Amino acid sequence: MKRSVRRNMRRVLKTALLVTLVSMMVFSSLAMAADITINLVTAGDQNMVDLFNMELGPLFAKENPGYRVRVVGTGPGDPGSQQIVEKLLAQKRANRESWDIDVAVIHEIGASLALQEELLSQYAESAATFKYVTSSTAKTALGVDVEGYVIPMFHSQTVLAYNPNYIEEPPKSFEELVEWVKENPGKFGYNGIKQGASGVSFVASWLYWKTGNYDIYAVTGPFDEKYMESWEQALAELREFDSYVTMTSGNAATLDMLSRGEIWIGPVWVDMFYSWVADGRMNPDFRLCLPAPGMCGQPMYYVIPAKAANPEAALKFIEFVTSPEIQAKYIVEKFNWYPGIDASYVQEYLPQETWNMVFRDVGPEELANYARVFPIKDYYQAMMEAYEHAMR
User: Which spans in the chain are helix H?
Assistant: First the structure.
């Protein structure tokens, strides 16, 4: 009897010990999960920091208990992306075993520079959402092969905005636009090359059209002065074109003059246009068109550094923010950007009125056919200098 009691006691003790060990393992696992912090660094304006800090980060943490997202912004434009690259490069040169950025959001210049320094992980094809990525901007950035290393967060596109009270049928090509400005002097407006990127886009798009060398200038290269021999004539024709147009003082000034009827048509950023409409500063009846052979835009990319401390968590976060549902609600509906993934996948998650507004005039097919990217760095610099010389 005593022996039987002792055996039962031993069984109870073993069971209790096993339960304790399992509990400790579960607790330890939960504690480890609770300590997973994804360090995200983003270039761009404050709205990018706010989007991750106040919207996407908390939502990801809510749907994925045990994770949190810590966000740092490095500032707008290409300099913001270059800061991220410089930080990663410093950690590489210091031979650090792991780097303190798990996810970075960068411009094309950042992606191209980071790849040249071998700072990025080739993660994209392992993402569950990579199947939704169809844009050519996910393949090359400023002449650098980025395929597999990036997933676009969004695509910001320039188009022509016009006032339908004065223009029933907008020019559908640059050829038609040239004829239109001659017939309607002073009613086309843009901001040149030093007063905002919508003007830079127009000048680059003009050169693409006039030379037919888009792929060389923006996709494949190489940089060679022989491909710029026709620029003098193309820019002389742009100077003639400019004699019929109104020069504005910036991206916002083009929109402002358009809204007040001082000009009837001009190049704008799509997201800025719809933000003005939402704020009541632009007539919602105004329309957009993307003329052949195309105009420039630019993506921002999600990347994972080559030695990110938490690459699995980084991938999980990127899959979340590039899902059709999140792209629809936050990229298209909230910010009026074109999605980083193929627009056809987000349609079912958007209110019909939002889809009808954002894609009313420039739909997925037009974007696929006519969306262009800015020139690679050397051609970009040469274009800026050539334009300044030609316009003296």
Answer: 2-34, 46-50, 57-63, 77-93, 108-116, 174-183, 197-211, 214, 231-242, 251-259, 270-278, 311-321, 324-326, 352-358, 364-370, 377-390
How high is the mean pLDDT of the chain? 89
Distance (Å, whole) CA 88 – CA 100: 8
What pLDDT sits at residue 8?
A: 53
Do strands 151-162 and 144-145 pair parallel, antiparallel, or not at all (unpaired)? unpaired
Q: Are 55 and 331 in contact (CB under 8 A)?
A: no
Q: How far apart are CA 136 and CA 123, in angstroms?
A: 17
Domain 31-155+298-359 homologous superfamily, CATH: Periplasmic binding protein-like II (3.40.190.10)
Tokens of 277: 């409409």
Rounded to two decimals, the pTM is 0.76
- Tell me the average pLDDT across 199-216: 95
CB 189 within 8 A of CB 254: yes
Which burial class, exposed, middle or buried, applies to 222 when counting CB atoms under 10 A from its CB (0-12, 13-18, 19+)? exposed
| Model pLDDT for residues 282-313, shown as the tens digit of each residue | 999 999 999 999 999 989 999 999 999 999 99
The count of other CB atoms within 10 Å of the CB of residue 314 is: 24
> Within 10 A of 118 (CB to CB), how many other CB atoms are there?
9
pLDDT at 33 exceeding the cut of 60:
no
Fold of 156-297+372-390: D-Maltodextrin-Binding Protein; domain 2 (3.40.190)
